[in-house]
Amino acid sequence: MSLSTTSKRMFSAKPFILFSIILLVKSYLAWLVIFGNVLNWKMLTTEMPFIWIVFCLIEWFATKRKLAIYLWVNLLITALFFAALMYYKYYGVIVTYHALDQVNQVTAVSNSVFSLMDPYYLFIFTDILVIGYVLLRGKKMPNWKSLSAKKENRSIILAFFVFSIVVCSFNIWPNRASMNEIKKAEDMGILNYELYTIFAKDKSELIDMKDITQGAIEQLKGNKIVDNPEYFGAAKGKNVIIIQLESFQNFLINLSLDGKEVTPVMNQLVKDNLYFPNFYQQVGQGNTSDAEFIVNTSLYIPPNGAASGEYAKKALPSLPKLMKQQGYDTATFHTNVVEFWNRGELYKALGFDKYYDKSFFGDEDTVFFGASDDVLYKKTATELERMQQTGVPFYSHIISMTAHHPFTIPEDKYRMTLPDRYEGTFVGDYIRSQNYADYELGLFIEDLKNKGIWQNSLVVIYGDHLGLPIYSLDNDDKKLMAEIYGREYGYSDMINIPLIFAYEGIKEPAVFEQIGGQVDLLPTIANLSGVSMDHQLHFGQDLFNQSYNILPQRYYLPSGSFVSQKTLFMPGSGFEDGTQYSLAGEEVNDLGVTEAEYTRALRLLNLSDSFVKQLPDHE
């Protein structure tokens, strides 16, 4: 027998070596997608020691079923790497065990999940198919099983085990305090990071309720007391209608492709009303449901999980409850089932009088997982007319949905012809779906006007969250976004959504350049409605009467990120190695962000978390 043949046999007989090589290749694929590292040997010292610890345990304890255990471990780690890269493509963060709460949502958004998958991702499962075939068909498998069942030298395995434990410890321990989850996962290794998140305790301490006051919040936010606020009571006594537009980003406003307006209805609303172009999302894992929570509470989302899951049992101070105190009826409209994202419990916590879901809107003209915006708006307008006829003012929150990721709406809903360079692209599909959403919004507004509702209402329109994550775009999409912006598409562009206030009696349309976030909507609506916020804790501010703002961000951006004045700040391990981006999208060396602002942003989040956790449960 030749030396090469003997070497091949020895190699094939040692699953420790074979599966180490297999998982090294899979680690490389995950790192390539998540960290963008084409060749980085750091993963050898981060991912492989964790894998070797598991393999050493197999070698130490397994005998008869050793090969089967290797195969199962390979499958589990493969699934974890695959979940990590797919989750990153959607959220831009590293998946953790907290995402298990979302498992029941995955089937509902399966189109979105599959749309993010590049074909080469499937290579991560190639070895499983090959080995599975060999196991079923291979004639020499009994021989391989018997050879691989042999125990390795225990002294060598013990030495390798201890070495791997030491290396993993050195990867995890020094990087525990890092704020940026992506950097933390890169420095620790993805597998070490997953283990760390399971056992790491929340280091933030609950702040005593007596220390959580509106004065403390205003001081952290740098707000000034205004004796005679502008726009106070400008829409007093009017109905309040909030329209939450699915995935609608601000760059769509006044966008034309080859001379054709994409969102003519929104463009006209901007011209005729009060418009805030520097307005930013603050949602997290719950996406649309998080936007519903923030807008209706003026509280920040939880550090992990969706607000509709984490906070739904609490007796939340809210806009519906505030308006009910003023004699308003309250209702919310969404075409999906109310169980999706635990909305039924969330609506109880928020205090809505009534919700309308799929049981009301039916299966007519279904797109993705609910009735289309056409059905939503027509049936909602009819119900709002009925509510207005009672003579009691109402507050209604309307959630649009057709322009939902992955934005592949049916052809019968196309309202525009895309330029050839946009056809078949993610960006093109997004723009076409938003053009449809804009068209249906226009019909809804005309319907409200014809029914006499628009003239007697304060209408608030905003986007719920981003539609085009930077990390989901391929090269062609990035080129199209650069064409639209006239520069590279940036992180601050990604989270920028529009905000419009419309009501009869606006003295003069205006564009307000100050920054704002979804947390600011409740106090701003209260100001326009002439309702005092003196007895309701809130973390937002009235956008018409404050010039400075600080907007803590979570989930889509690393922990510790915030928007302030002209800057988006994203931390590294901490403040010192953080990155500043102008709100125009460019990375810059210094835009005047201070460590004090960074500390204040974190303190605001801690205050909000502490406040909600100590609230009593609702009945």
UniProtKB/TrEMBL annotation:
Domain Sulfatase N-terminal intervals: 238-531
Entry keywords, A to Z: Cell membrane, Membrane, Transmembrane, Transmembrane helix
Family matches, as InterPro entries: Alkaline_phosphatase_core_sf, LtaS-like, OpgB/LTA_synthase_biosynth, Sulfatase_N
Main localization (coarse): membrane
Transmembrane segments: 16-35, 41-62, 69-88, 120-136, 156-173
CDD domains in the cross-refs: LTA_synthase
Annotated metabolic or biological route of this protein: Cell wall biogenesis; lipoteichoic acid biosynthesis
Localization per Swiss-Prot or TrEMBL: Cell membrane
Record membrane topology: Multi-pass membrane protein
Protein family per UniProt: Belongs to the LTA synthase family.
Keyword Transmembrane: yes
Name by which UniProt lists this protein: Phosphoglycerol transferase MdoB-like AlkP superfamily enzyme
Pfam families membership: Sulfatase (PF00884)
